[in-house]
What we know:
By secondary structure, the chain is an alpha+beta fold. The protein is built from one helix and five strands; from the N terminus they run αβββββ.
Amino acid sequence: MAKFAVAALAALLLMVPSAYAQMMGQPGQAGTNALAEGGSGPLQSAMGRITSIDLAEGTLTLDNGTQLRLPQSFQFTSFPVVGQETEVTYVEQGGQKVVRSIDVGSPDKSNE
């Protein structure tokens, strides 16, 4: 039984890179062909410097005015900081930009 579980897990891990590549589309088209979780629409991205994070409201705002909704289920691998350059992948749901991933750079040292 344990050998079967290990084999099943190994097979699943081998499928992840292929599924990710299909989800993200061709290079240079990051996610324009893929539907986001729940079939809500195509993944889109926004780049900019984080100007505010409001966990009570569940929002993240970029310096270009883009406001994004952080779903309650969103899990951070590292917490974003105001002043960081970032690329956010999101999907439009009910007129809101709902975050799917956040890729942050280093914080702006000029604000310190």
